[in-house]
Every structure is written in C-alpha cells, then in structure tokens.
Amino acid sequence: MLDAPLPPGASTAAAEAPLLDAYSEAVVQAVARAGPAVAQIAARAGQRGGAGSGVVVAPDGLLLTNSHVVHGAEALQVGLPDGRRFPARLIGEDADTDLALLRIERDAVLPAAELGDSAGLRPGQLAIAIGNPLGFENTVTAGVVSATGRSMQGPGGRWIEDVIQTDAALNPGSSGGALVDSAGRVIGINSAVIAGAQGICFAIAANTARHVLGELVRFGRVRRAVLGLSAQAVLLPRRLVLRHGLPRPRGAQVIEVQPGGPAAAAGIAPGDLLVSIGGVAIEGPDTLLRLLSAERVGEPLEVVLLRGEQLVRLSVVPRERG
Fold this sequence. Notes:
This protein has 322 residues and is of the alpha+beta class. Helices cover 19% and strands 39% of the residues. It folds into 3 domains: 36-104, Trypsin-like serine proteases (Thrombin, subunit H), CATH 2.40.10.10; 118-219, Trypsin-like serine proteases (Thrombin, subunit H), CATH 2.40.10.10; 225-320, PDZ domain (Pdz3 Domain), CATH 2.30.42.
C-alpha cells in the first residue's frame, strides 16, 4: 500500500525542526550561563528614582552598567535574579563610553558573567540581550549582530566608538544589561535604542568595556590621549591592500575631525582610512581606544592612511582629554 502524500510544506517543516531546536537550545544555554549575573539597578537621587540593568563581571562584586543609569545617584541598590538585594557604590564612570563600574557591598561570592572577545564578531552572529526592561526582571530577547565598529553619539554629545549594532529588542530599563553570544559570553553592554526605529539597538563592545573596567579599577577614571576624530571599522579595498602590501585587511574610516584638534593639525581628513598609528595596526575604534593611553600624550606618532588610491604618512601629536 502506498503511503499517503505529505501535506504541502510538511517535509520542509520536518527538515527545519532540528535547526529550530538547535537555535532554542543555544539561547537557553546562553541565558543559563549569563542570566544569573544580570542584575537590576535602582538609583535614587533626592526624591527621584531610576532603574536600569547591570552585569556582574567578577565574583567579588564588580558590576558593569551604563554611566547614564547611575550618574548623579545618591544611593544605589542591586537586585539579583535569585532575589538577593545589595547596596552598591560607584567606583567610577566614563561618559565617553557610557560605562560605569559599581562595587556591590556583599558578604558572599556572586555569580559572574564572562567578558568575551568582541574583536571577532561578525554581522549575522547570534546576539542575546538580557536585562530588566520596564522593570521586568531577567527578560531575554534574541537577534543577530547587525554591524560592528559603529560610532554613536552619547548622552553628553561626545561620540562613543566601537559600538555593536543589534536587532535584539531593548527597552527602557535594559540599559546596562548584557549582550551575549551563543556561549553565554558577554560581547557587549546594552546601551541605547534609536527612538522610532525598528530593530536598531546598540551595545558597547566587550573589549572596550574590559579596557574601561581596568582603568576605573586602577584610577577611578579613564585616562586618555585624544586625536580629535571619530572613526568606524571598515574593510580596506582589497586591491589597495595588495598594491601597498598592507599587513591587515581592516582599518578605520575617519567620520569626523574636530576643528583645532591634533588630527586636524596633522592633516587628517574625513574619509581617510587609517591603517596604522605609531606602528600599531588600526583595525577599528577599539584599537584606537587601547592605543591612546595617557602615556601617548605629547608623543609624536606616525600615521599611515589611505587617501583615495594613495598611501599617505603623517605625524600626529595626541593631547590629553580635558
């Protein structure tokens, strides 16, 4: 006896079922790893109160969040998904990256998430946002990495470099929460949504967060040299990479140059493709952030860049950010 024909689309659904199960399993496992470390933050300033999210990144109580979540707060309280509540104090904040570091006042080891390496992120990669939008604790949304190396104007008007764009939904209260990969590693700290846009959300890259964390732990602030430019990561034209024998296929495209700043004085212009500075290959804004430490202030640095078809060498002298 012949088998009855399958309904239209049944074979396709059967083939897709294992893929859907694998996707669900990846999200579930990632949330199980990182979720216990994503906290709710209550910030009080006078008679006003605000709320956001944060990520515990060390068992001894270090927590990363957004600067705009805790700025100006007189009292801070952190709530974990297991129901525990702790007071917290601000170690330091960095408005230039919209990041802040808290110390949770606790007498127990806390669940901590792992900071991953955001340098290898690629568009299309699974991205899972965990936070407390609108007060709903440990809410999970999933999407993909839409783009990397973006520049975004922060709350104070300054440009934030090395930003991840994702379509994982964020809402008020999600700020400071975790953006994680399929292994549950934190690849970004959720920061902003474009009002009126569909699926355009931003997170501060984990490599930037790691650098800022180290500076805040050591100095209570992020010491920086500046060039007076904003840039975003790009792939360099392959023909120019081959023609000029460039060591890396990636660079940073200059988006804006501050009038009167070091970059302008050196002759750097919007549209230039930065290849290296001071002998360090520039593969995006995160490289610039790490390169421009306080020790670089006043130090002449050779800049290698592509301008049109030409390889250009300039000299720039970073100054200290005020």
